[in-house]
Amino acid sequence: MSRVKGGTVTHARHKKIVKAAKGYYGRRKNTFKVAAQAVDKANQYATRDRHNRKRNFRALWIQRINAAVRSHDEAMTYSRFINGLGLAGIEVDRKVLADLAVHE
Q1: How far is 26 from 84, CA to CA, in rounded Å?
Q2: What are phi and psi of 100, to 5 degrees?
Q3: Hey, which end of the chain has fewer CB within 10 Å, N or C?
């Protein structure tokens, strides 16, 4: 049986990593070993920050709803408002409520 060389597969894998590292500073953009570490770390940050973005938007929506509720009635708080919506059987999520608070 003849020997199989993995040059094309390895080249394609290296090219994919280096392409993902485009725009990085120094050897991070063109040296495979360093670029692979940089791309792996960037993917870790991307995954973490996708979850953080959801957290941040929920906090923003809550702040907007709270501001609108308090501007309407000084005694009313966000917590009492959400509780009242639940007791009334109104199922509107915070994203829509925040949009209503800003635009209405």
Answers
A1: 57
A2: -65, -40
A3: N
What is the C-alpha separation between 16 and 18, in angstroms, rounded? 6
Helices 78-88 and 32-72: angle between axes, nearest 10 degrees: 80
Residues 72 and 70: their CA atoms lie apart, in Å, by 5
Whether the per-residue pLDDT at 104 is higher than 90: the answer is no
Phi-psi bin for 89: left (phi > 0), alpha (psi -120 to 50), beta?
left
In this predicted structure, the answer to whether residue 5 has a pLDDT above a threshold of 90 is no
CB atoms within 10 A of CB 5: 8
DSSP state string for 4-61: ---HHHHHHHHHHHHHHTTT-SGGGGT-HHHHHHHHHHHHHHHHHHHHHHHHHHHHHH
Tell me the percentage of the chain whose pLDDT exceeds 90: 85
